[in-house]
Design a protein that fits this description.
D-amino Acid Aminotransferase, Chain A, domain 1; ligase; five-stranded parallel β-sheet; 28% helix; 389 residues; nine-stranded antiparallel β-sheet; 3 domains; 12 helices; Dna Ligase, domain 1; Rossmann fold; single chain; alpha+beta
């Protein structure tokens, strides 16, 4: 199978793509794959999930269902991911038997464990915050306070992260799971880069972006492209991110989250082996979106241009506090009067506080004006639910 995709004479008009995961990332990936004429099958346990609404076939199954995972891979020329929390054991068997699965299940398995991920990057000379494995309560105090405790497995969208500010926090707030600690970095900005790498090793980086967070739940709130940083910082961020993906030997799209410290150092926070929230702006603002780029990468097509056509700001639309149930979009008419605004709603049937329900992207020649327009829209648009909670 791998050799067939390396062959430029492969008949791409009949290519069958499998996507593990049916959320918003899978939905936009599927839309881009359909634009290219590919047949798309998705695997997800939720009926009428976002990606199922735009795909050719939906295999109803969980991400740890070996039988359904094997069915997806067997029915696809290439299988890829929109999430990392998946059973890799059956996927490794299939990969070792010649099936095209990218990123490889071995890369996915490594990235699933944030401690092992950090350890590999550190061993490869990639700058990361100081860290330590936690075997006892004493280990949580090794760097003094404050310190960041992270679960090794399962963390997502701010879950599995705890800031410990005192010995009392260690006793009352510490995560009761396999974990490690990191020093509390003195952060100037949180940055990110989307890095693409195809089967032949071709690499392309998107612009460095700046991420702003909703501190209530530690979820990325807004993304500014390009980041407001110096040329020197930009070049170092690109270098570090490129070296990170080479160290992983990954194929696909990777969201590399970075810290810019107050002293001007770039450090890798963590890596997502899939399209990333920090790359949503690429749909409107770049020559090739991250969602088309992953299709190109895993099917060994030439990578597309990552040129930034216009500065952009992306804002996540989260479920409003105090509401859940069937979603209702409040303010869409007024928001769409804002020039150069694009509205994305993911088609999730149920909203709850802080759930990612959609996003907007606003373009402008001036990044600061784009931010003003995006914040105006953010104050207008609200995703409410049918029930108050």
């Amino acid at each position: 199978m791998e050799k067939r995709l390396m062959d430029k004479n492969f008949n791409y008009s009949s290519l069958k793509l499998g996507i593990i995961g049916g959320g918003q990332l899978g939905k936009i990936m599927s839309q881009k794959a359909k634009k290219m004429g590919f047949h798309v099958t998705i695997l997800d346990p939720t009926f009428n999930c976002p990606a199922a609404q735009v795909s050719d076939k939906h295999i109803m199954g969980g991400f740890y269902d070996k039988e359904k995972l094997e069915q997806l891979v067997q029915e696809s020329d290439v299988t890829t991911f929109e999430l990392e929390h998946v059973d890799t054991s059956i996927l490794k068997e299939l990969y070792d038997n010649g099936h095209n699965i990218h990123p490889s299940p071995y890369v996915m398995e490594l990235i699933q464990n944030k401690y092992e991920q950090k350890k590999l990057l550190d061993e490869k000379g990639i700058p990361v915050p100081a860290y330590k494995d936690v075997k006892s309560e004493e280990d949580l105090c090794a760097f003094g306070f404050p310190v960041v405790q992270k679960a090794k497995l399962g963390g997502y969208d701010g879950q599995g992260v705890q800031v410990l500010k005192s010995l009392e926090d260690v006793k009352t707030k510490a995560l009761k799971t396999d974990s490690f600690i990191e020093e509390m970095v003195d952060i100037d900005k949180e940055l990110a880069i989307i890095v693409a790498r195809n089967i032949e090793g071709e690499i392309k980086c998107y612009p460095v972006v700046e991420m702003l967070f909703d501190e209530r739940v530690n979820i990325c709130d807004s993304v500014m492209a390009p980041a407001r940083i110096s040329k020197e910082v930009e070049e170092e961020a690109i270098r570090v991110s490129t070296e990170s993906i080479k160290a992983l030997d990954g194929v696909g799209i990777f969201g590399v989250e970075l810290f810019l410290t107050k002293t001007g150092q770039i450090q890798v926070n963590e890596i997502a082996p899939r399209p990333h929230n920090s790359g949503h702006y690429t749909v409107e603002a770049c020559a090739t979106s991250q969602f088309e780029q992953i299709i190109r990468a895993v099917t060994n097509l030439p990578l597309g241009s990552t040129k930034l056509i216009s500065p952009a700001v992306m804002v996540n639309l989260l479920g409003e506090e105090g509401y859940e149930g069937e979603p209702f979009i409040d303010g869409i008419h007024d928001a769409l009067e804002i020039p150069e605004l694009s509205f994305h709603f993911y088609g999730k049937s149920f909203t709850k506080p802080f759930r990612k329900m959609g996003h907007i992207t606003v373009l402008d020649d001036d990044i600061n004006v784009a931010l003003e327009k995006a914040n105006k829209a953010k104050n207008i648009l609200k995703i409410k639910g049918s029930k108050k909670v």
